[in-house]
Every structure is written in structure tokens, then in C-alpha cells.
Design goal:
The complex is a heterodimer of chains A (197) and B (465). Chain A is globular and about 65 Å long. In chain A, helix 2 packs across helix 3. In chain A, 31% of the residues lie in helices and 15% in strands. Chain A has a single domain, classed as Aconitase, domain 4. With 197 residues, chain A is an alpha/beta fold. Chain B starts with 5 loop residues before the first helix and ends in a 10-residue tail after the last helix. Chain B is built from 15 helices and 19 strands. Chain B has a five-stranded parallel β-sheet with strand order 5-4-3-6-7, sandwiched between helices. Chain B is globular and about 55 Å long. In chain B, strand 13 and strand 14 form a beta hairpin. Chain B folds into three domains: 185 residues, Aconitase, domain 3; 83 residues, Aconitase, Domain 2; 178 residues, Aconitase, domain 3. The chains are: A alpha/beta (197), B alpha/beta (465). Chains A and B meet through helix 3, helix 6 and helix 7 of A and helix 2, helix 3, helix 5 and helix 11 of B. Bound molecules: iron/sulfur cluster. The site of iron/sulfur cluster has 14 residues of chain B, from helix 4.
Chain lengths: 197, 465
């Protein structure tokens, strides 16, 4: 996974609540068995609407997405995070996220930053003047070129994962002793391979 | 010391390792796999040279992509994905209930049916409706593909402990009102993000008197309120459902298991981070009007006016939803006509759901303006329904009777809505385009869907007597 230390870019704003993962990447693109190449299908149906936010020329090249509450709700499809990343987004800023999307994002190298409404309003006001931000994942700060600085809270473990681009599985496998001990102490209930029906 | 909740008991029993400032490492007792969210996980294992650690705690099925009409699969990309699952399962030693095996079905119908969904377990699947299995007093939740790979490789997951919420349904359910109406009302009340960060326990008299099918319907839609997991304490109803199924303990082991499972409930003095009370005695059949499951009204109500929403964000969302749904504010729900009916999905395609729907359509006929289909949740449900003659009831009434699968719940297979088509659906998501680009979905219970099929519009199932 790519490291995510600092991003400076314009901010694409899709200020709608409850953007679900069916919108982010519709089902017809989930039949592929690859992990890459989903960016071209991002917001597939909404992209057909000429006034969809991502068509705005001023949002071109944005690596930061600002969205409404409960972003990424619905289906667990990690393809949604893959599509955002493949399209070019590294950071999402929103008032809240679905739990599964937030978890999938970390594994995809996307930071999901949660800001309270008041700070979001400040941020939007600043962006309306000048659309550019720097997000620093090491210091957990958002900096606007006109001087606004916002610090945000972020899960420490997820921060480390993102900043260093770490692989969760390799880390967990180092704890094999604990897993083996748990298994030894916990008798099995069934063997799925021998279920007679 | 204060008592503990059902959730806490299961969580505590599964912590493998815990370090301060880090999510807990928890053990996973059962991993369910399907074709859509697994190929990249298997590929990841292959690239790293890692095996599936516990194939004996893993089982796969084919559900999301499969056509529900007999005959060879014509969608070559879908076929490649199903072939990939078959090859991956063979390579990694994972058992697979493939299409045509007679054991295939929607992953959340299959687990309980096999008796491998049991109280006190941790169960995961690369699918957000894994919460369904919580109906058995299990901690069950959906995960993404990276987590699927993590479970395959380690049989564990790194998880931050969620907060706990209890939703208490008091009173007795009135005639014509179902588990689906209970959960839709709950989502309407707490909102589609009301459960974010929580594991929900459903309790109260109206839950205790529900069948396992009804409890599964409710737990299934926990994720539509934003909660990754929903659960119900196991009781005699639970044990009766599991007993005798292929994965169930047998003989003395059964008695021991029941004794153990009987202790799995929240203590009387346990505390929850949030408690929500819902009185079901005044509950009415529910129908969604918008583009998320929280946009719901009673069938005897009207389409809401966006102007009545205090929050500007909600108002804009309602306006956009009405535009997408092609609805006018103030229209009585029973005046909305429909083009399609879908009885199916992991929410409402179990035998009890099909029986209930059949009762409504028996001796009647689907309206001439409506195309209606029934898609059983699994090959076993289909078989059982046919033994009971339900297929005849539906076919005689003009329904299509299909093979098992997810079908038009998400329209990955050929079963989709055309743009502008309006569908009464027993599934769980009415998102824009969910059942087909431009399609308009209204969620409701199986009996309400059946009644709508006959009338060609929404009707209050209570008036049918
Ligand atoms: S029936 Fe629908 S919600 Fe259930 S697993 Fe299949 S696609 Fe998902």
C-alpha cells in the first residue's frame, strides 16, 4: 500500500448526505476479479448527469473529497474505496462515515477525516475563497493557504498504517503464538468440509 | 460490578490479544465467502504465498451473480467470477456449495440453514448483511475484501470495540404487521446513520415472540441503520431452529451446547450506551418512499413534503429523492401504482416469507400491469416451497418462480429494473439504481408486496382481512 503522509490539492465538494457505495461504484462493475481499474466507473450513474459536481472544471485533479454525513453507507464493497483511490482521491473529509467504508479506506490508503459541523462550515467558507488544502497525516492537520489551520483526531493505529503504508496481515501473522494458543484452548464446533446435508 | 451485555460476553470470549491504543485482535469462528468480494482476497493470498488458515471454518457459495433462470450463464464476466471462485476454493481447500449442488443459496440464508450459524459465535462475510446471523445470538458483521483476506490468512480480525445500543420492541404485533415493518420503523426512527459505531441488541416482548425468520429479517437490516452488527439473545425458538441441522451439535454435545447458549443474554443490570424504545401495538405496515431505507412512511400515510423537514440537508435529500422516485409530495401511498414486484433477498426469501406471501395471492391474480417474481433464498427453500405447493400458488397467480440467488435485490444478474420502472420489493436497499439504473424501489414486507402485486398499487394488507 502507498504511504500517505501529506497531500496538497484542490478539494472536490459533493455536499450530499448518505452517499452510498452503490452510487460510488454500481454493481455491474463488481464482476471483475481485479483490484485495480475501477476509477473510470466512479459515480457511474451520477457522472451521466451534466451538472454532477465532479464535472466542475475547478475540481479537476482533486485528491481531496469533501462530502456529507454518513459517507460510504450501504454495501461493504471495498471496490468503492478502490474506485475513489484509482480516480485519484487520497483523502475524504466528512462529518461521518459508515463503519465498513472507514475500515476499507484505511486498507486502500485513503484517509477518512471526520470534522464536526462547525469546523466543516469554516473549511467550506475558506475553500469558497480559495480552493486548496494541505492535509498532513503525520501532524493530523488541515491547512488552508489563507491561514486556517484545523487539527483533527484520527485513530492512532490507522494513522500509522496509512503513514507507513503497512500491511495488516503481515503484522497479525507475527502474533501467531497468541492465535495458536487461542485455538488450542477453544474446541471446534464443526468442520465445514464434512457437513453432510 | 455491573452486568455485561450479550455483545460484551461474545466479544470478551473472542479476544485473542489486546494492546493498548490498538484495536483488539478477535477470533473468527466462521467465515462465509461468495464470488463477488473474494477473488482479490484469494489473489492476495496467492501473491504472498499464504494458505487459508482454517478452511474447516470457511464455506463458500454462489449467490450474487447467478442467473435465476435455468440454463447456462451467458454473462461471460459473471461466469469468469464464478469460475474463479470454484478454482480458488479448490486451490485453497475451501468447501463450496456451488450452483446446482442443491445446497447453494444467498450466503445469509445458507449459514442458518446448515446449522453453522450458532449462538455465541463470531461470524464474518464480505457482505454488509452478515448482521443477519446475529438473530441467533452471534456477533456477525460484514467486512471488506482486505479484511476477507485477513481472516483467510489469520482467522482473526483487528477490530475496535463498538458501542452498544438496545432497541426494545414492547407490546404485541398487530395483525398484518411483520418483522419487516418493525425494522423499517426502527430505521425510520433512528435514521440511516443512527447505528453507526454501535452493535445493536434487539429485545422486548415483540422480539421474543418472533420466529427465527422474523428475527433474521430484523438483524439483516441493522446495517441500513448504520450498525455493523445486530443481535437477539438465543432462546428456545433459536435452539429449536438449529436442532437437527447438519452443523448442529448432536447427542450429549447438543445438551451441553444448549446449556452454554442459555447463558448468552444481557444481564438485568447491564448498561447500554443507548436505548431506544418502540411500542409495536400501534405499528402499521411500512413502505419506503425515497432513496434510503430511513425514508419510510406507514402505508396509510402520504409521501412527505420536503418543506416539512427542518434540517436543510434532509430537505435537499428529500427533494432529490422525490425527483428520482418520480413522486409528488402529499400523494397517498395507496395511490402509487407499481410495475414490478420482487419477493426475494436475504431479508425476506425464507420459507416463512414465501408462505406468508402465498397466503395473500392464493386464488388471486397479479394485476395485468405488473410483472412479479419470486426468488427463493436458497435451493433448499425452493425445494421446500415446492413440496408445500407454494410454487403452484405463485405460478397460478401469474408470478415467475425462479432459482435461488440474490437476483433483483442488487441486479448483478440479468434480473433488473428498467429506467423509471417502479418496484415493490421485499429486499433491503432502495438506493438510486440499486435494482437497475434508473429503477425506483419501494421496500416493504412480503405480504405487502404480494398484495401490491395483485392490486397493481400499494394496498394496506390489513384491509384484506
Ligand atoms: S440478497 Fe441482496 S442484500 Fe442479501 S446478500 Fe444478496 S445482494 Fe446482498
Amino acid at each position: 500500500m502507498r504511504e500517505l503522509r501529506q497531500v496538497t490539492s484542490v478539494v472536490a465538494i459533493i455536499d450530499r448526505p448518505d452517499i452510498d457505495t452503490d452510487q460510488i461504484i454500481p454493481k455491474q462493475f463488481l464482476k471483475r476479479i481485479e483490484r485495480t481499474g475501477y476509477g473510470q466507473f466512479l459515480f457511474y450513474d451520477w457522472m451521466k448527469e451534466p451538472d454532477f459536481e465532479l464535472h466542475k472544471p475547478e475540481f479537476k485533479g482533486a485528491e481531496i473529497l469533501l462530502a456529507g454525513r454518513n459517507f460510504g453507507c450501504g454495501s461493504s464493497r471495498e471496490h468503492a474505496a478502490w474506485a475513489l483511490e484509482d480516480y485519484g482521491f487520497r483523502v475524504v473529509i466528512a462529518p461521518s462515515y459508515s463503519d465498513i467504508f472507514r475500515s476499507n479506506s484505511v486498507k486502500t490508503g485513503i484517509a477518512t477525516i471526520t470534522l464536526p459541523d462547525a469546523e466543516l462550515a469554516e473549511l467550506k467558507a475558506a475553500l469558497a475563497q480559495r480552493n486548496e488544502l494541505t492535509v498532513d497525516m503525520e501532524t493530523l492537520t488541515i491547512t488552508h493557504p489563507d491561514g486556517l489551520v484545523i487539527t483533527f483526531a484520527f485513530d492512532e493505529f490507522a494513522q500509522e498504517t496509512l503513514v507507513h503504508g503497512l500491511d495488516d496481515i503481515a503484522r497479525t501473522l507475527k502474533r501467531d503464538d497468541a492465535i495458536a494458543a487461542y485455538e488450542a484452548a477453544t474446541p471446534g464446533r464443526f468442520d465445514t468440509r464434512t457437513l453432510s446435508t | 460490578m455491573a452486568g455485561t451485555t450479550l455483545f460484551e460476553k461474545i466479544w470478551q470470549a473472542h479476544v485473542v490479544d489486546e494492546k493498548p491504543g490498538e484495536p483488539a485482535l478477535i477470533y473468527i469462528d466462521l467465515h462465509l465467502v461468495h464470488e463477488v468480494t473474494s477473488p482479490q482476497a484469494f489473489e492476495g493470498l496467492r501473491l504472498a504465498g499464504r494458505p487459508v488458515r482454517r478452511p474447516d471454518l470457511t464455506i463458500a457459495t454462489m449467490d450474487h451473480n447467478v442467473p435465476t433462470e435455468r440454463g447456462p450463464i451467458t454473462d461471460l464476466i459473471a461466469k469468469a467470477q464464478l469460475d474463479a471462485l470454484r478454482a480458488n476454493c479448490e486451490e485453497f481447500g475451501v468447501p463450496l456449495n456451488a450452483t446446482g449442488s442443491g445446497r447453494e443459496g444467498i450466503v445469509h440464508v445458507m449459514g442458518p440453514e446448515l446449522g453453522i450459524t450458532q449462538p455465541g459465535m463470531t461470524i464474518v462475510c464480505g457482505d454488509s448483511h452478515t448482521s443477519t446471523h446475529g438473530a441467533f445470538g452471534a456477533l456477525a458483521f460484514g467486512i471488506g475484501t482486505s479484511e476477507v483476506e485477513h481472516v483467510m490468512a489469520t482467522q482473526t480480525l483487528l477490530q475496535s470495540r463498538p458501542k452498544t445500543m438496545q432497541i426494545r420492541f414492547s407490546g404485541t404485533l398487530p395483525f398484518g404487521v411483520t418483522a419487516k415493518d418493525m425494522v423499517l420503523a426502527a430505521i425510520g426512527k433512528i435514521g440511516v446513520d443512527g447505528g453507526v459505531g454501535y452493535a445493536i441488541e434487539y429485545a422486548g416482548e415483540a422480539i421474543e415472540t418472533l420466529s427465527m425468520e422474523g428475527r433474521m429479517t430484523i438483524c439483516n437490516m441493522s446495517i441500513e441503520a448504520g450498525a455493523r452488527a445486530g443481535m437477539v439473545a438465543p432462546d428456545a425458538t433459536t435452539f429449536a431452529y438449529i436442532e437437527g441441522r447438519p452443523g448442529a451439535p448432536k447427542g450429549a454435545a447438543w445438551d451441553e451446547a444448549v446449556a452454554r447458549w442459555s447463558a448468552l443474554k444481557s444481564d438485568a443490570d447491564a448498561t447500554f450506551d443507548r436505548i431506544v424504545d418502540i411500542d409495536v401495538t400501534t405499528l402499521t405496515p411500512q413502505v419506503t418512499w425515497g432513496t434510503n431505507p430511513g425514508m419510510v412512511v406507514p402505508v396509510d400515510g402520504t409521501v412527505p413534503d420536503p418543506a416539512d423537514f427542518a434540517d436543510p440537508t434532509d430537505r435537499e435529500a428529500a427533494e432529490r429523492a422525490l425527483q428520482y422516485m418520480g413522486l409528488e409530495a402529499g400523494t397517498p401511498v395507496t395511490e402509487i401504482t407499481i410495475d414490478r414486484v420482487f419477493i426475494g433477498s436475504c431479508t425476506n426469501a425464507r420459507i416463512e416469507d414465501l408462505r406468508a406471501a402465498a397466503t395473500v395471492v392464493r386464488g388471486k391474480h397479479v394485476a395485468s400491469t405488473v410483472r412479479a417474481m419470486v426468488v427463493p433464498g436458497s435451493a433448499k427453500v425452493k425445494h421446500q416451497a415446492e413440496q408445500e405447493g407454494l410454487d403452484k400458488v405463485f405460478l397460478d397467480a401469474g408470478f415467475e418462480w425462479r432459482e435461488a440467488g440474490c437476483s433483483m435485490c442488487l441486479g448483478m444478474n440479468p434480473d433488473t429494473l428498467s429506467p423509471g420502472e417502479r418496484c415493490a420489493s421485499t429486499s433491503n436497499r432502495n438506493f438510486e439504481g440499486r435494482q437497475g439504473s434508473g429503477g425506483r424501489t419501494h421496500l416493504l414486507s412480503p405480504t405487502m408486496a404480494a398484495a401490491a402485486a395483485v392490486a397493481g398499487r400499494f394496498v394496506d394488507v390489513r384491509e384484506l382481512g
